[in-house]
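Q: What does the assembly look like in three dimensions?
Context provided by user:
Components: two
Sequences:
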Amino acid sequence: MPLLEVKIPPMGESIASGILAKWHVADGAIVKKDQPLFELETDKITSEGTAASAGKISLKAEAGAEVKIGAVVATIDSDAAASASESKPSAPAAAAAKEATPSPAVRRLAAETNVDPASVAGTGKAGRVTKGDMLAAADKPVAASASEPKPSAAPAPAPKAAAPAPTGARQTRKKMSPLRAKIAQRLVSAQHEAAMLTTFNEVDMSAVMALRAKYQDDFVKKHGLKLGFMSFFTKAVVHALREVPAVNAQLDGDSIVENHYYDISMAVSTEKGLMVPVIRGCDTLGMAEIEKAIGDVAKRAREGKITLDDLSGGVFTITNGGIFGSMLSTPIINPPQSAILGLHAINERPVALNGQVVIRPMMYLALSYDHRIVDGKEAVTFLVKVKQAIEDPTRLVIGI
Amino acid sequence: MSSSETSSFDLIVIGAGPGGYVCAFRAAQLGLKVALVEKRATLGGTCLNVGCIPSKALLHSSEHLAWAKHHAAEHGIKFGSVELDLAAFLKRKDDVVTKLVGGVSQLAKARKITVVTGAASFVAANTVAVGEQKLTAKNIVIATGSAPVELPFMKFDGKTVVSSDHAIAFDSIPKKLVVVGGGAIGLELGSVWSRLGSEVTIVEFLPKIAAGYDNDIVRNFTRILQKQGLKIEVGAKVTGFANGVLTAERGTEKLTFPADKVLVSVGRRPFTDGLGLDKAGVQLDDKQRIKVDAHLKTSAPGVWAIGDVVAGPMLAHKAEEDGVAVAEWIAGKAGHVNWDLVPAIVYTNPEVASVGLGEDAAKAAGRAVNVGKFNFAANGRAISAGATDGYVKLIADAKTDKILGAQILGHNAGELISEVVTHMEYGGSAEDLARTIHAHPTMSESVKEAALAVSKSALHAM
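A: Here is the predicted structure of the complete assembly.
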C-alpha cells in the first residue's frame, strides 16, 4: 500500500525544529494534492506544509508539538483516495526511536496528560522521548478547543499545580505564542550578549522633502510607485557603511568577520510580531528598486508569505518607529549584526541656523551598536555620515 | 617478522593497555590489519600488570583476612587463629595477573593481531621504529598511558619511597606505611596494607581525601576508614623525607610521620617519553598531554591518541571506550564516546562510586536539582550481609527529573553505579529508575529507593 510520509521540510541551516502550530485537516480526512495540511512556526517564519499527493491522512503529531526538521508528522495513504475505502492504514513508518518502548515515566505521563509520545520530538539517545520532553510537551498550549481539563487516566494526583490563578475580569491571560516567545528570547539574549549602547543625532529633513516634492510626479510616472524616505536612508546607510567598515562587521566567536556586501534588513511590523526581511545588494540598487523591494517584502511579511531566504543574511538593520509617531527610541541589535539605525517621527521644530531661529522638519536618529566590535568614534562617525547624506543628498552622488 | 625490513599495516597501536589492546581488537574485528606494539613482555599495560587488577586481587584477599579477623565471630564463625602467609598472598595476586595477561595474548593471537614487543618511537607521522624494525601504517594510535608522578624532593627509590608499582609487592609488611596522596590508588593500597597489619597514615594536601566526591560522601567515607584504623591527615603539605621520618606542614604547624615505607600516590602523568612525537609532528598541551580534537585526532594527520595520554579522567574504562571509538572512526564507522558519563570508583571497603554531576558541583553551578538519598542501613540485604555502611545519592534536574549524577558509598558501590550510568545514557529520569523493577532482596533496591527519594517518595524510609 503506497503510504506517503508527510515530513517537516528543511527550512535552512539555522532552523532545526519548529512548532506544529495548527492542523488544517482532521485525522482520517481525505486530502487533495497540494492542499495545505499544517502551519509550522519557527523562530523566524511561519510557513505551510502541503500534501504531496492525494489520499487519506493519518496524523502522527499533535498541534502545538515541537517537531524537528525531517520529522514525520503524518502519513497519506494514496490508495484510500482512489478507493475511498475505510481500510485502516497499517503500521506507519515512524522513526526507529518511536518504535522503542517508551520509558516508564513517559508511559505514565502519556496516560495522565494524553500527550502521545509519538508526537513528541525526543532529546534522549537516538531521539528517544524523555520524561523532560513529555513534561515540556504537556506544558505546551493545546491549539484545538480543550478548555476543560482532561479526565485523568490514572487516579494519581495531578503532577503539578499548573492551573493559572483565577484572573477575574480585570485581566485576561493567554499563553505566549511560540513565535512571540522566541522573539522575546532573542531580544533578551541580544541584550545579554552584546555590549549594546546607543548614540543619537538629529537630521534636518528639508532637503529630502524638497527632492521628493520636486520629483515625485516624474518618479511615479516612470516607476509606478512613490518615492519614500526609506530609499534615501538605505542609500545613506550604504554610504556610511562604506565610510565606516567597522559597522559592517560581526563577531563570530573570537573572530571579527568583515562583510563586503550591503544587504540591509528592514524591520516590518506584522500581526504576529516583528519580522526583519532583507533587501539584497542595496549598493547596486537604484532608489526605485529599493522602494519596490521594500514594498514587496513588507507586503509578503504581513501576508505571512515571507520565506526564510528573505530573512537571513542581512548585515545592518533599519527600523522606523516614526510611522507610529515615536520621537526617540533605543533599538535592539538584530544578532549577529553589530548595529541598527532607528528612524523616528518628523516634527517641525525651531532650530538655530546661521544665527537665526528657523522652523525645520527634524527627525531624531538613533544608532544602537555592539561596543565589543564598534568603537564610539566609529559609531558616532557613522551616524554623522547618515545625517550629512540626508541633509545634503548630493553627497551620495559624489561620494563624500 | 624479520628485522630491518619495513612491515606495513592498516593500523599500528602503540601501547597494549586497556585502551590500546581494545582498540587493536576492535580494529581487527572490523577487518583491519593491525600491529600492537608493547614494551612490556606481557600485554595489558599498567592496568593488568601493576594497576587495577593486582590491586583488586590484594584488596579482595585482604578483605577476607579482615573479615576473618574482625567479623567472622559476628556470624558465629570461630577460627583457631587467623594468620597471613604473605608469600602465598602475593602469589595469588601474581597468578591472577598471569591468567589475565595470558588471556589478552590469546585473544590477540586469535584475532590475528601482530604483537611487536619493544618500545616504539616515531620516525615519521606514519612510521614507527621498534628496535631495528620499521612499521608503517596509514593510521597510528598512541595509547602509551601514564606513569606515577614523582615528588622532586623525594624521588622513588623502589625500596623506601615507592610508587604503586612497588606497593603491590612489598616482600614484608611495613610496620609504618605513610601514603602521600589520598586519591583512589593511595586509599586502596593503604587499605590493603592496613588490613595486613601496617600502621597506615594517609597524608593529603587537599582539605579532603577522594577529592572528586561530594563533601557529605567524603565525610562519611573518612569516618569509616578511620574506624578501620587508617590515620588520615588532610590539608598537609609534604616537605620531605629523611632518616625514616616524613615531614609535612599544615599552615604553620609542623607535622612528622615516622615511616618504614612511603607510598607516593599523588597522581599520574601522561607517558610519552621516548616516543619521538616531534618527528611525527604530534603536539602536546600545556599539561604535557597529547593534544587531540573531539575525534581524538592529534595534530599529525593519521595519528590518534587515546586513554591516559590525552585530557580526561585516567581510567581504564574511559581508555577502552576511546579505543573502540577510534577503531570505528578509522574503519569509517560512527564511533561514540560519552565523556560526560565516565563512572569513577574507589575500591576500598566500602567502595565509593560516582557518575555525572555531584550535588556539590550542581549547587555550585546554580542548577536547580532534587537530591534523593537512601541509607543501606534500611536495606534488608545490606543488613543480612553486614554491609550497612553508606548510602546512595541520586541527583536529578528539578524541572525535568532527568538524572544528572549519582554518588554511592557502600559495599559493591562500583557494581551498583552501573544501572545509573545506563539510565543516564538513555536520558532517563529518576522516576524511570524508580519504576524499574529491582530484585528483592538486593543492595540495588537502595538505588531504586534513592530514585524514589528524589520525589520524596521513598517507601522504606521516612
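Follow-up: The longest helix of chain B spans residues 86-110.
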